[in-house]
Amino acid sequence: MEKYLVLATFVGSIIALLFVVITAKKVLRFSEGTPLMQKISQSIRQGANAYLKRQYSVVGVFFACMVVVLCVMAACGLLTWFVPFAFLTGGFFSGLSGFIGMKIATASNCRTANACQEGLNRGLRVAFSAGSVMGFTVVGLGLLDISVWFFLLRFVFKLEASAITSAMLTFGMGASSMALFARVGGGIFTKAADVGADLVGKVEAGIPEDDPRNPAVIADNVGDNVGDVAGMGADLYESYVGSIISASALGVAAFSDQAFKAMAIPMVMAAIGIICSIIGTFFVRTDEQADQRTLLKALSRGTNLSAILIAIIACPLVILLLGKEHLGLYFAILAGLIAGVLIGKATEYYTSDTFKPTQDLSSKSQTGAATIIIGGLGLGMLSTAVPIIIVAICILVAYLCSGGAASTGMGLYGIALAAVGMLSTLGITLATDAYGPVADNAGGIAEMAGLAPEVRQRTDALDSLGNTTAATGKGFAIGSAALTALALMASYIEKVKEVGADVTFQDFSLMNPVVLVGLFIGACLPFVFAALTMNSVGRAAQSVVLEVRRQFREITGLMDSKADPDYARCVDLCTKASLHEMILPTIIAVVCPIVVGLILGYMGVVGMLAGATVTGFLMAIYMANAGGAWDNAKKYIEAGHFGGKGSDCHKAGVVGDTVGDPFKDTSGPAINILIKLLSMVSIVFAGLVVNFHLL
Amino acid sequence: MEKYLVLATFVGSIIALLFVVITAKKVLRFSEGTPLMQKISQSIRQGANAYLKRQYSVVGVFFACMVVVLCVMAACGLLTWFVPFAFLTGGFFSGLSGFIGMKIATASNCRTANACQEGLNRGLRVAFSAGSVMGFTVVGLGLLDISVWFFLLRFVFKLEASAITSAMLTFGMGASSMALFARVGGGIFTKAADVGADLVGKVEAGIPEDDPRNPAVIADNVGDNVGDVAGMGADLYESYVGSIISASALGVAAFSDQAFKAMAIPMVMAAIGIICSIIGTFFVRTDEQADQRTLLKALSRGTNLSAILIAIIACPLVILLLGKEHLGLYFAILAGLIAGVLIGKATEYYTSDTFKPTQDLSSKSQTGAATIIIGGLGLGMLSTAVPIIIVAICILVAYLCSGGAASTGMGLYGIALAAVGMLSTLGITLATDAYGPVADNAGGIAEMAGLAPEVRQRTDALDSLGNTTAATGKGFAIGSAALTALALMASYIEKVKEVGADVTFQDFSLMNPVVLVGLFIGACLPFVFAALTMNSVGRAAQSVVLEVRRQFREITGLMDSKADPDYARCVDLCTKASLHEMILPTIIAVVCPIVVGLILGYMGVVGMLAGATVTGFLMAIYMANAGGAWDNAKKYIEAGHFGGKGSDCHKAGVVGDTVGDPFKDTSGPAINILIKLLSMVSIVFAGLVVNFHLL
């Protein structure tokens, strides 16, 4: 039985990767358009490749240091020798997911622009196919990594179930570290370029967005790829793998008699999710006269169908593997699946300009920048309430349905399965999310290559929809991050028991001051992290502003299109700044759990993880939704409301959008990874902390 | 012995109130200045009185409803019959503190302006004396309420120690409810008027601040009194009383053998604090050529002296009452006292323009409003780290020094005593804080009455210093609120045990999903609360903007000073809007703990309290410091940096300041009260929740 389960997981991953190859080939068959379009696309590609190359070399140094530390710990008997290798593969595959996604995205931008010359539906097909490559690369590589390690540890090294999950949690740490670098570095790059290009180009020089005279325009387009594609790919690889392995680990803890089956359920669920998602992708198409609503329907049809298929198949799977008496676990999965959809809807409500909150927000531009900022901050804070309630209900349902009343272990396994359920449609939801930056780039290329206005209109329609799907995707990523973080917290406690601590319930009581102090410190981390990343964007953007101003001043004939700006210099500047700025936040995320553990012990660590998860969830939603709402409020004004483009209201809207940029694309998404990385690091260093701590 | 302790507390309160009467008489002997100044002052006074009168009538309805509910619960045996009465007296005294403070503030504004004609030192003396009246009214009434109830319950009704503290916690709930109404209502009033006056007057019409032609100028000055004076008075009354009674309650739980002595320590400490604070006030004076640094030194001399005196006297007190073996409790008190001072310093560092963070922030105005907003938000978030670490260390020191390692009860009593220690200098710190709005009003009157420019310069010097002391006072209030909230959480658990629940350690474990769900919901409350109050300010300000625009348009001759604006109408508008807007947030604060309790039971409530305390602390610091820094960054620009007044940088600074207004003066301070009110309500309704809950 065990072998078949591993095989099923492996087959799932291979199907995903085959689908990737076929889809990628299909995309690459489309024409790249005129030589000018090819040239622009190539500049973007070169910039993105150069950034990633240098990013990987910086990250490489970090990974080398960590591997040395892990080897030393293994030599001291605090870890097994699998840990350093698992850590490396997690980082490698996470980075690879981002890399492949970015490769296809930078190859598809000009193809999408070209396809949009022929029609909206054709454009959607190219962009969505590129997004699918990204989505299924992430899930395919994730499951491949998991199934290969499972096979090796079980059938080659013949380890026990708990030792297997313990080693596998380490590649979660590798994936999270890589993801944090990619998200933070890419997020700083993209927003520094975006803010810098807008502040000087749009506001000071008064030239339109994506104007080829703007020296930061290529950097801006590179940013979309390294931040919104490569960063997101690494990020979601980490979420996906994290949710599966934490569920497996808790399954082993809960089912001592059927450990391997409980461990396999999340993996097989993921494999089924892949197949259902692939089926869903075939239902994404639209007609030529589509407006935004029809486009959104086309995408929703695909994701909804996948979700329904998964909901149907998961039920017999649970019964088959664990027997009818554990049917409750199915409802836990279902709760996660439904919660994910509902959080997406809530995000859409708060950030789409077809609903009241964003429309109201844009009306606040009438009394200036200050009121639209206050309004957006208020909207973001208020929008945390519904997702919190959804997650709260999901936690309770998952816990109680899976038998938590009788056994805490079962209940926690249920919560972890809810996270797996939520992420089971990741292949297709990520496809709908990742196609956005491709469409955005296509719009840039259309503008720079001087294509007909209706082409830009079509790419804009695709791009605008991308903003909504990106916001939905973010809500989804945050919800699953919270559930996964809780599961990892539980895994941490299992790990602490495993390394020999004499754990009692009192240890984790809120009346234990060590737990409380941990809670305070953990709760503070997302605030500090958000502040550091926002300040980084500010500093990096400021250097872009100065460079763009310099080029406008010094390159004669630039404004009359008689001379070309020095695009490469802006790309280089963003690269250097973002690589420099990404180090401190990541180091903090890795060092904090170790320092807190060495001072406060494992009880303090649990408090810290709980605090970070709770405020991280809130801050991530607050920042993502405020940013999304400002962005769409500006678009709503641009669509002709309250005076339209160029009016005072529009200027106020641009201020809101600029504040929202680092909110939604740098700090907010990085917090998701932060809360999981904290847990992963804690798990890996549990042996050290249990043996050595001050209090 | 017991009687002497009650007597000492009573005497402390009487000394404070005598000092109030003497100081008030001294202030009232100063001249009110010219008839025009008197007339302006009278308009402000009338507006403030009218607001408070209507506020009290709205609050009266709420109190009447709550008393009915409490009486019904008492009739059902879920509460004792003391509870409704204690609830009423808490609310009454809290409101009275604000009322008296406001009376003296509105009587001193013109006197301060007039005294500033004679010199800076004289102006400081009047303003500071008015602040002292407020400060010592709060502590005097607080201790009076406590000592009278203690006397009645102990010597007339002859209750046991635990029954006494249980009844006394209820007047905490009354005080907190009143405080929340006062802070939220007053906070909305003051910021709606301020933002409204600035947006139309300064930005659109281009007339200076406090120009008599601005129809909202009187409303703005009324706002300073009802928000920053009456609101703050009610708020700090609640903090002061809450910290003392929660410490008493935990003392009773920890020392079953010496219950009354342990209960009395916080009260006697408070009485000693009053006397030391009075001594401190005599050392606040400055010379005529004082700059801001000298002025700050003058105030610091007074507060530091008081703190040192208290630190010296507390040691023999603890030994005398509980014996040498409990000397550790003294160190808990000391930890709180020192933590309070350090948090104040940290706040000063982040918000004063003599330090780097605010200077850097003002430099961000060079690239526009968006970058100064991003910078301020980042600064606010980052500034949470140091206070969190200070509070964390304070909690651990207080817990461990007071014997927490041996007994949890002793440790929690220590944490509560740290809060009492922190607030023991409240009389004088509140005086330095409350004098700010008096000086602010004096500046307004000087401007409107056309006094000589050097008078305005002097009031500005006093006012600017007031911004720093206000920020320090806020840091201090937040720190003590966090400690008090933890103490109240512990009191809640004692209460739950008392009403018959079979409490185990597992009940409050972070691995209990009910606790986790409570944690999520509680953590969300400060976000929702901040959003609601910010949106309220936005809506109320918008209505002021429309009214001011209307008056500018319709009253002919207004801009040429040939006709008077209709001040009363703006005051009336603010009054109506703020009373209307204050209801929902307060209702949420009262209803949430009951609903969460009825669904999740007492474990969920404990989770909720912990979540709300932790994120409330973070949000309150984030909002107070971001707001303070924006305010001072604008002032720094106005002082001539980056182009000075009227430059583009200044305009960006004004946007920052406007966003900061509701942050620092409405939402931020109200969160302090929120986290304590949640605990108080939970304690009062513990009997109901333990007997009836869903899960």
Automatic annotation (TrEMBL), chains A, B:
It is a multi-pass membrane protein. GO terms for molecular function: diphosphate hydrolysis-driven proton transmembrane transporter activity; inorganic diphosphate phosphatase activity; magnesium ion binding; potassium ion binding. One of its GO terms (cellular component) is endomembrane system. Its EC number is 7.2.3.1. Requires K(+) for maximal activity. The chain crosses the membrane at residues 6-24, 56-75, 81-105, 126-151, 163-182, 262-284, 305-323, 329-347, 368-400, 412-431, 475-493, 513-532, 582-600, 606-625, 673-694. It is an enzyme of class 7 (translocase). Pfam families: H_PPase. The record marks A470 as: Determinant of potassium dependence. Its cofactor is Mg(2+). GO terms for biological process: sodium ion transport. Homodimer. HAMAP family: PPase_energized_pump. Sodium pump that utilizes the energy of pyrophosphate hydrolysis as the driving force for Na(+) movement across the membrane. This is Putative K(+)-stimulated pyrophosphate-energized sodium pump. It comes from Vescimonas coprocola.
